[in-house]
Predict the 3D structure of the following.
Amino acid sequence: MINIILSGIGGHMGAAVRKVAAERGDLQIVAGVDMNEPADMGVPVFADFTELAVKGDVIVDFSHPGVLAGLLDYAVKTGTPAVLATTGYSDEQEKMVDEAAGQVPIFRASNFSIGVNLLAQLATLCAKALGEQFDIEIVEAHHNQKLDAPSGTAKTLAKAVEEGLSFTPDYVYERESRRQKRDHKEIGMHAIRGGTIVGEHELIFAGRDEIVTIHHSARSKDVFAVGALNAAVFLVGQEPGRYSMPDMLG
């Protein structure tokens, strides 16, 4: 049985992780970390990692970028692997993740859906085949509570596209100030926020008289919880290093 420390246990994704974990027989949540210290979680909950008094086999984090420093400090000091599912990290925070991964296993992904990771592979393939003659746009949509834009997944898809191109693209996040023709080397990034949209991502390859689109739709948060818990099981017993979905999916 794998014992999990759930960071962000009181949030929406925390609820999804608890639901999915309860349906499995190979793991259990033994404690939570949440600055609001919600009650009735069924396990002890601590305000931050400095107060955490329960040992776990792995941390699963669906919280806030502000938690990262304390989480990594705890992970390194205790040798506890960590699955980082929070988005919106700065470049400096990504460097912190890299440094911690030199001492403890860290699983980092912008999206834990198997379908989205397949979409990234298709993005590279399409860019290799179409990128020289087709214009490329990325559109993502999420709920009105999401803080970062564009989404971490949209950025990951953009990097996957870039891997298939023979040139370095110029990312354009808005066109209101650009009164000029679209340059072929641009990749347009568009973010939509509204309602309770779980997650929509679409890649558009627009050529002369034809359009190729690839679309992924997440219908519930459970798909991300399933992926994160699979990552937690995968991470236990791994050597220190930075891991991601391709490492787990093979």
Observations:
- The radius of gyration is 19 Å.
- The mean pLDDT is 94.
- Residues 121 and 193 are 26 Å apart (CA to CA).
